[in-house]
Amino acid sequence: MAAHNKLGKEGEEEASAYLRDKGYTILHRNWHAGRKELDIVAEKDGTLVVVEVKTRRNDVFGNPEDAITPRKIRNIVASADAYIKLFAIDLPVRFDVITVVGTCPPFEIEHIEEAFLPPIW
């Protein structure tokens, strides 16, 4: 496995552990349907929480959350829509971002709740 893929996987592990520690129930990790993909799908307090995880070695080239472009947001929202339809979910939905910075534990973790709203098409 390439080093950047290994770091990304470690970041998602850390993000999942962080969410569990905060009382979230992890429903799926790395959920795929065709080309649609969601990093983490969780539930807390009757809300479906779709979490995009961004892992970086450092912030030399900017903050990890800056990599979430309008196009990426559209893809996440479309994937969440497919997920909701597939599993017939009738809950409010929130889109969060978790950034994980570092090369090994302990990582620096930031949880940005309601990081973005679905765009209006």
From TrEMBL:
Pfam families in alphabetical order: UPF0102 (PF02021)
CDD domains attached to this UniProt entry: PoNe_Nuclease
Coiled coil (residue ranges): none
InterPro entries, sorted: Restrct_endonuc-II-like (IPR011335), tRNA_endonuc-like_dom_sf (IPR011856), UPF0102_YraN-like (IPR003509)
Family designation: Belongs to the UPF0102 family.
Protein name: UPF0102 protein O6P32_09995
